[in-house]
């Protein structure tokens, strides 16, 4: 019988789970989790191989999707990023909490891989091995995206990366080196390519809580888009939906959702039964509670920029609601509260988050095709998206053409017009979900924030603050801080 201790050290911490050191030390390990002697037990462990923390709060606050409302909930996870300062908070929704959650997920993936390798019949563990490899790649990918300079082929071999951990830790405070962004990307790609062919959609009753085939291919489209390998983006987008049936797997905003109340939309938005959700993860977070209430958030002015008009000439159907006079939100993510015990009045807030969706695959494919010069394919994807998002959509009225794009944006360059359309549609689709920050980083866009008194904070294209600071707790593992 092969035994592995699954609660392992994470970089910069002690022997912990996300709940904390004391909570872990108060309990004995469950034998069913330490004896990974069946594929089912490894699969159970892999349920924890996804970062159970939320990046949306700080990612959204750094972007151009927010303004100072002059009043609202003050939280360091929202305030510090808005001012482009290192986040001083370490609790849920902070960068440090996300860092720890990623390495906790990586630890679970590594223990699963060790169990797969040690099994008497490794062929029985093939699907688990595939999921573990892709999950390990994903957590490292998100870490390097936030805590290192954004991938640039010309500088990646010199830019400091993040520790790529491939073995279960056996000691506390193990020392690590960051190596480079290029090395990190190479390791991500190695795990991704090795893991994808092994994944099986038959392995779980609810595949959307694990890396299924479509979710893994969706991850590949994001990875290669960031790497600017556009042909591979198209390849994996087509693999994610081999029958090109994106239309039937998109959110029905201008049909089914249109008649729903905000509460009902919130209830179904991040459910496994929603076909648009390719991969879901539960995150310990108060975002569902405060999304509209943060002082630095969506305002009337900003929502007009995002949702007010678009190239089709029609109106986006996204329902916009508000509390009072300043707190705006599109109903999406909601909180569910887990009590500490049956009769407890305390507990932990959670938010279920879609990590990959059909819509992202569509956008990634469209953008890649724009760079490849496949304008017909780009327009087909943009028009498909519009058909699901424009109120009272009429193909003869709302169909997107290159002429419409030139006129709307006032530019003659078709490629740039297509790209601008994609980015604008994407901004609208993922408002209040944190995705905008990735596009800001990819295109090195300058961001300007203002206080309610008119003070200005500018984040330049080459500003060192675009890279999140390595948590101080990680320096005990020998990891150098990012320059400031």
UniProtKB/TrEMBL annotation:
Q: Principal localization? A: membrane
SUPFAM superfamilies in UniProt: TPR-like (SSF48452)
Outline the extent of the SusD-like N-terminal domain.
23-225
Q: For the RagB/SusD domain, which residue ranges apply?
A: 360-467
Q: Name one GO cellular component term.
A: cell outer membrane
Location in the cell: Cell outer membrane
Q: What top-level branch of life does the organism fall under?
A: Bacteria
UniProt keywords (A-Z) are: Cell outer membrane, Membrane, Signal
Q: Does the keyword Membrane apply?
A: yes
Family (UniProt) = Belongs to the SusD family.
What is the name listed in the Swiss-Prot or TrEMBL entry for this protein? SusD family protein
Q: Which organism is it from?
A: Chitinophaga filiformis
